[in-house]
Amino acid sequence: MSGRVGTPVDVLAFGAHPDDLEFGMGGTLVRMVREGLAVTEVVLTRGEAGTYGDPDIRVREQTRAAEIIGCGLRFMDFRDGEVEATREGVVKIVEVIRELRPRICFAPVERSPYTHRDRAAHPDHLATGKLVKRACRLAKFRKFITRDAEPHLVGSMFFYMVPKGVLPTFVVDFSDYYDDWIRAISAHESQITNLRGGDLRSYLEAYKILYGSFIDRKYADGFYSPEPLEIAPSALFGGSR
Ligand SMILES: [Zn+2]
């Protein structure tokens, strides 16, 4: 064995822009960290093409959000508005996966039937989903060369930002962590106070309430799994809560 190996994490959660992770699955990230999992956020851009804020503000806000969640944070050097599923991009993501060695990965959904009216359908989000899916597949192949890191097998990958009108494969209850989620999304002040006429919080909450209603809980995040999930019999009785 040779090559660079960092401290392994349980969960690597990818976002295209600062705010994607908090808005899309922040409550779940809080719950994971509070339950003892090692979580790192990887944000591909600094949100430099966003209408509100600037890269310095966006990086500061994302850093604050990660502090509130209690997770690690890594920025990459993709360009906002120009994220594409290229070979170079896949190699860069594989390098991060091989360094941080996650058990599971999350990324924005890679396909959406909708266009500009669905947050999930931003081209950078879809490209990030494609990049991470490909990288998770390739990271284990020793002969897929990227610098000097050891190959790594990612156990599973899941998508967040499930498109409107699509039922999630599974939901994660975060009702007990609602206050921390609100703090985490509020850290993205330049976005939360401007987007959707300053009413983005209500919009996000509506989704969380909808997903929570599927399991008779107040707030949940929705996820899509491209593959069937293995369920322990005990979980069929609601034991996973
Ligand atoms: Zn985004």
Describe this structure in words.
Helix 3 crosses helix 4 (123-138). The protein is globular and about 45 Å long. It starts with 10 loop residues before the first strand and ends in an 18-residue tail after the last strand. The model has no long low-confidence stretch (mean pLDDT 92). The chain has a single domain (11-237), classed as Rossmann fold (3-Layer(aba) Sandwich). It is an alpha/beta fold and 241 residues long. It is 36% helix and 13% strand. The strands form 2 sheets. Strands 3-2-1-4-5 form a 5-stranded parallel sheet, sandwiched between helices. The chain has 7 helices and 7 strands. The structure holds zinc ion. Residues 16-17, 20, 122, 125 line the site of zinc ion. Zinc ion (ZN) binds at residues 16-17, 20, 122, 125.
How would you briefly describe this protein structure?
With 241 residues, the chain is α/β, with parallel strands linked by helices. Helix content is 36%, strand content 13%.
According to CATH, what is the topology? Rossmann fold
Q: What about the largest sheet? A: 5 strands, parallel
CATH-assigned homologous superfamily: LmbE-like
Number of domains as seen in the coordinates? 1
Q: Low-confidence runs (pLDDT<50, min 5 residues)?
A: none
Strand content: 5-15%
- Helix amount, in percent? 25-40%
Please give the order of strands in the largest beta sheet: 3-2-1-4-5
Q: Radius of gyration, Cα only, in angstroms?
A: 17 Å
**Alpha plus pi helix count:** 7
Structural class label: alpha/beta
What's the rounded overall pLDDT mean?
92
Q: Which hetero ligands occur in this complex?
A: zinc ion
**What is the H-and-E element order?**
EHEHEHEHEEHHHE
- The quaternary structure here is single chain
**Architecture (CATH level 2) name:** 3-Layer(aba) Sandwich
Q: Regarding CATH, which class?
A: Alpha Beta
